[in-house]
Structures are given as structure tokens and as C-alpha cells.
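Q: Here's a chain of 236 amino acids. Please give me its 3D structure as C-alpha cells.
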Amino acid sequence: MKHGEVIIACDFDSKQKTMDFLDLFQEEKPYVKVGMELFYGNGPEMVREIRRRGHKIFLDLKLHDIPNTVYHAMKKLAELDVDMVNVHASGTSEMMKAARRALDEAGSRALLLAVTQLTSTSEQTMQEELWIPHPMQDTVLHYAQLAEQSGCDGVVCSPLESEAVHQSCGEDFLTVTPGIRFAEDAKGDQKRVTTPAMARKLGSTYIVVGRSITNAADPVAAYRRAMQEFMEGEHA
């Protein structure tokens, strides 16, 4: 199975903190995730600056609205020349198709991902609060199948669901998996988590690692450790 890279979640509250963090990397240009906090606080110019520095970017805004709104929003995001963007699969197949159409019409090379269920969501919460009565894995697989049929390149899911998604949607259908921690780290607000090595074993194409790298005493060493564990499967 083809494996991608470790994506660092740059969940910082300011441009300065982000740039100071990226300045630590002198030999590597890690793939980075820009999420809502950083994007809403600093705007599109933040993305352009990271791009100018030579980093690949996963723009993690999880669009979820009526198809027409998502179409026009994705047309604007396509101008930022990022490598990955995403929508919520629960926004319906028509919404996902609208996002796909927007990227294609803009000539964007960005991979389109659909979020299945957030890794902070437990099955109990999904059933009791979202009123989705099906088991978590069945729900994730259903959303993944809809995403594939709607033209998405892959899904964002828990590494615990990667293997089943690949079995259902094929080896080339990407699984980008947050909820990654080193074995000794606390889970924080995540519910469905694994180590980098276990994520590889379970079939994740890319892993997203946040606090285990950004809060480490030596973030560069932590990034290298995550890359080694994910690419080589050690320390599972």
C-alpha cells in the first residue's frame, strides 16, 4: 500500500507562532495543516506565506453548506494553490459533487477529502446526539462510499477505520487520519486514536499529528520520529 507523509497540524493562534515553529525546520519542509483557528485569525495571506516557504498545505476548513455556497467557496479556495482541501461528507453527495466541480473548473490540483466522523466523536455521542443509529464503522463506510461516488479523492477518518475504507473503496482512495499520538502521550480531546506505527499497519495513507509534535520539547526530533514510525512501522 502506498503511504504518504506526516502532516503537522499547525493549530497556533497567531502568525508569529506559526512562523517561529516553521523556522525550526532547516533541513525539512514538512507538510502542514492549516485549520480554522489559523485561517480565520490570519486569512488567506497566511496560506500564501506558508506556500511561499515551500510547504505542502492541507487546508482543513471542512466546508459544510448548501451545494451552491460550497461551490463558490471552493472556487475561492482553489486560488490559494493548496494540496488538500476538505468538506463534510454529511453535507450530502450533491454538496461534495459541487466542491469537485469547483476544483475541476478552476484547474486545481488539490486533493478533495470528505470528513466522515470527527475523531473527537464517540459512537455513543454519534447515536445519542447526532441521532445516527448505525454503528460508527458502518456510518464511516457509508460516508466514504458516498464520497468516492461524488468524486472525492479520499476521506478524513480515524486510523481505526482506514483498513475498512480501503477494502470498500480501493487502495488508491486516500485515508487521511488525525487522532495520532505517540504511545506515551495523552489522548486529549480525541476518542479514536493510535500511534504513527499502528496507523501505518491499519492502512492510513497520510497521518495528521498535532500536539505530539507542536508541544514537544524538540519539535523537529518529534517530527522525525513520527516520520520514521509511520514510514517504517516501528514502535507499534
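Q: Can you summarize the key feature?
A: The CA atoms of residues 83 and 110 lie 4 Å apart.
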